[in-house]
Amino acid sequence: MTTARRDTYTPETLLSVAVRVFNERGYDGTSMEHLSKAAGISKSSIYHHVSGKEELLKRAVSRALDGLFAILDEEHARVGRPADRLEHVVRRMVEMLIAELPYVTLLLRVRGNTETERWALDRRRDFDHRVAELLKAAAADGEVRGDVEVRLATRLVFGMINSIVEWYRPDVRGASDREVAEAVVRLVFSGLRHA
Amino acid sequence: MTTARRDTYTPETLLSVAVRVFNERGYDGTSMEHLSKAAGISKSSIYHHVSGKEELLKRAVSRALDGLFAILDEEHARVGRPADRLEHVVRRMVEMLIAELPYVTLLLRVRGNTETERWALDRRRDFDHRVAELLKAAAADGEVRGDVEVRLATRLVFGMINSIVEWYRPDVRGASDREVAEAVVRLVFSGLRHA
DNA sequence: AGAGTAACCGAACGATCGGTCGGTTCAAGG
DNA sequence: CCTTGAACCGACCGATCGTTCGGTTACTCT
């Protein structure tokens, strides 16, 4: 068993700094010089901990994707009426988004310029399809409205949920993750009109 | 009156090419070399038409912002019951988003790295506030539900609308702009449950 | 105290960045 | 036919990109 030798960086602690800067400046807009300033170590020292810029990206988006897929394995997402399972997934997605905010933020901004980015986009598509099937099942059972196409509705609901990364900030005293999740569930299922 | 001397580029036609590449690779991920390849002219020739990379960005986001603000000046957005005015703005935002898709897409992705980007973010905030006030008025009149905070609801509705740029493609035979707008209005006001 | 090594650094690499410059091509107007 | 100027080009600029390398520091273990 190896313990930390001194108060220093690990790939994980370095990652948290990198992800913060990536989200502030964009991945392409962030240079290794920016990262070294933010981390307080020299540019070359970063390569002692990670293989390069792209490994940091891969570690970050992997963490976000693992969190999302884990939701689909939860019991409430697997058993029960489709509409209830959908509600559970929507609620947990919001909570996961907020819990792993910087990592999911980075994931949602990937454009596909590198191999790592294309891999992330593929896994995202897989996840989207899994949720779309849930909505489809709920529609087939007549538990949600059928006058809006399933694919279209899925994309719009995803859009609402994913947009949280654009404005949610944990530091300022606003709504908690549970409160945001509750608001999303209400709007997704009942809309703005009185319930 | 000056007519086009030969079949050549103008700042506007060059802009449409640049915006397409910006959206594919991201603004920071796009080099002038990328633009010159896509436009079919040399890198230095681009500078004959525009002052540089940032002017292309500014022209693009200006066009998107002008389109959005024009919606607020339309009669149906100024007179009538707040909830009806809100519905009109939501519907027109979707149509505008789709009509000016590449320009709005670029606008929604600026991060604030340059002066132009920060200016765009400021104008976006202004627009958001104007719509938030509309929702607030509708809530005060009891026309929409009050159990979800106005600021939160505004952000979520914006999130749903803005997410359209992430998946809508005019070439493939999918929903038309009117159909998407109708779907958004239904989900925003009534949600997934049966109306 | 001395060996071993994780952590770190400054300097420099070739490549590419956004942008400049002097000069060439080519169509319109007199 | 000749001048004019918009359109365009290849070559190049200093700066910065992600990354590498040789060497130094500082901590742990014996």
Description:
2 copies of one chain form a homodimer. The first copy, chain A, has helices at 11-25, 32-39, 43-49, 53-73, 75-78, 82-99, 101-108, 115-140, 150-162, 177-190. The first copy, chain A, is elongated, with a radius of gyration of 19 Å. Chain A has 195 residues and is mainly α. The mean pLDDT of chain A is 93. Chain A folds into 2 domains: 11-49, Homeodomain-like (Arc Repressor Mutant, subunit A); 60-190, Tetracycline Repressor, domain 2 (Orthogonal Bundle), CATH 1.10.357.10. In chain A, 36% of the residues are buried. In chain A, helix 1 packs across helix 2, helix 4 (53-73) runs antiparallel to helix 6 (82-99) and helix 6 (82-99) runs antiparallel to helix 8. In chain A, 69% of the residues lie in helices and 0% in strands. Chain A binds a DNA duplex (30 and 30 nucleotides) through residues 5-6, 8-9, 31-33, 41-45, 47-49, 52-53.
